[in-house]
Q: What sequence folds into this?
């Protein structure tokens, strides 16, 4: 990726946000009945704070991600697709960078794990057969935007910090009937309520973003599972005079799909210096 276009994408797919480039349905169950009762009671905050637990109960799914950032008069969109295991908190995504004037970009393979992000085909002087490992708790955004794709379970755990929410109405996502909610979440509250493996990353995001308040729109199916969620994050990038707005959208589908994720062996992880681009 060359020139300003390359630097723009690098602002998202980067360590520390600057420098390096870096939906199937289930049957009716007791959980469905409980989620429906909560919705009928109108307690949107309670329903949304439990959304991550509903995903853990579902076990796994396929996922599509989209991340948009407007900077320097240019709108950049990074897309991803893969699978996620909500019980083990392991995911695999193939992330596609925007078209580069010099030619097609090789997709970046990302492995999502508790406390870590692994990237392959990352560029920046890293050999093509090696992985880069990043400790997500050290990232100022907790890897909610760094990799160009938000970890699906981390996105659900953000909703544990829901402070205000309203039921917008019934809708449909990819042929599935859903309930649309809109509200704001507090990352500080979310970090306190998160699972042990996700607490550190959300705490880092609460400190690192321009504001800990995250507006969102989320669509839940009859079992309380997230089918679509859109967060709007705001972070401070050293290359910009003011906060940069990032919109992250995740679609979840085909629940129960196999999500086999194998993490790299230590000898396959790059230990050398990563060049800045």
A:
């Amino acid at each position: 990726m060359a020139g300003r276009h390359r630097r723009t994408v690098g602002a998202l797919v980067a360590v520390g946000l600057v420098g390096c480039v870096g939906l199937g349905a289930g049957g009716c169950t007791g959980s469905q009945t409980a989620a429906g009762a909560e919705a009928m009671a109108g307690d949107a905050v309670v329903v949304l704070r439990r959304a991550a637990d509903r995903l853990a109960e579902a076990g796994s799914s396929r996922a599509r991600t989209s991340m948009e950032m407007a900077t320097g008069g240019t709108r950049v969109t990074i897309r991803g697709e893969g699978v996620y295991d909500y019980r083990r908190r392991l995911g695999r995504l193939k992330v596609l960078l925007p078209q580069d004037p010099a030619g097609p970009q090789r997709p970046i393979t990302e492995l999502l794990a508790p406390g870590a992000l692994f990237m392959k085909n990352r560029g920046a002087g890293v050999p093509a057969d090696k992985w880069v490992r990043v400790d997500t708790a050290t990232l100022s955004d907790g890897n909610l935007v760094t990799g160009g794709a938000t970890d699906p379970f981390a996105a659900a755990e953000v909703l544990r910090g829901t402070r205000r929410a309203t039921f917008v109405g019934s809708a449909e996502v990819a042929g599935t009937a859903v309930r649309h909610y809109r509200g704001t979440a507090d990352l500080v509250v979310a970090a306190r309520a998160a699972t042990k493996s996700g607490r550190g990353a959300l705490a880092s995001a609460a400190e690192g973003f321009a504001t800990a308040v995250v507006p969102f729109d989320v669509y839940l199916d009859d079992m309380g599972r997230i089918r679509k969620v859109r967060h709007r994050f705001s972070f401070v990038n050293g290359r910009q005079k003011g906060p940069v707005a990032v919109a992250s959208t995740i679609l979840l589908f085909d629940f129960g799909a196999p999500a086999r994720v194998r993490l790299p062996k230590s000898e396959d992880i790059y230990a050398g210096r990563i060049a800045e681009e």
Observations:
- The first helix runs from residue 3 to 10.
- The two ends are 9 Å apart (CA to CA).
